[in-house]
Amino acid sequence: MLNIISWLRRESAGWTPAETIYMLTCTAAITVISIRLGDDLMGIISAVTGTLYTMFAGKGKISCYFFGIINTVLYGYIAQKATLYGDMMLNWFIYLPMMFTGLIMWRSKRDDQGCVCKTVLSRNSRILWLLVTAAGIAGYAFILTRMGDKQPVVDAATTVLSVTAMLLTLKRCVEQWLLWIAVNTLSVAMWLKVYLTSGNSIATLLWWIIMLITGIVFFIQWCMALQKSSSNNSAEQIK
Fold first, then answer.
1. Which of 13, 16, 27, 111 has the greatest number of beta carbons closer than 10 A?
2. How many domains does the chain contain in total?
C-alpha cells in the first residue's frame, strides 16, 4: 500500500496548478459535449484515456502508458468501424506493443522527480528520419488505396508519421512533438470529414483538437527543458 501511495506521489510531482486545471477541463469538456451530442461510451473512454496519455507523456510520466494501452485498444476498434484501416492497424499492431515497450524503456531513464530525461536528434539523424518517413507514407498510401481506404493519403500520412513519432517518443526526443503536431492536424481534418459525413465520433474529433493544442504546448515545454539542460551541459543528443 505504501509503495502505491509513493508511486502516485511520484507520478503527480511536477504538475503546476494551471496544467492540472487544463487536464481536468479537457477531459470534462470531451465527456460532457460528447454525451450531449450522443456519442457512445467507447468513443468517450477512448478520447479521455487518449487525452490522459498525452498529458502524462508530455510531463514525462511513465504512467502515461497505462492510459495509452486502453486508448489504443478502443481507438483501433473505432477506426475499424469508420473504415480507416491504417489507423486501425497502427493502434492494434504497432501502438499496443510499443506501449509495453515504452514501459520498459522509460523506467531506467527518469530523474529524481520521476520525469523522463529528454533528448534531441543530431542534424544527420533528422534528415534520415525525414527521408524514411516520406518513403513510408508514399508506400503505405499505395497499399491503402488497394484496400479501399476512403482517405488513403491522409490515413497513410497519419499512420506513418505516428509510427515515427512513437519511436521518437520511446527515445525521449523533443522532435516527437513536431511530428505529433503534424499527425494531430491531419487527424483533425480526417475525423472532421467522418463527423460531417456520418454525424458520429464527435468525442474522437474533440480529442484530436485538444491533442493538437496540447502537442504545441509540450513542444515548447520540452524545448525549454532542453535549453536548461544544455546550459548545465547535461543535454543528451541522439546520433
1. 27
2. 1
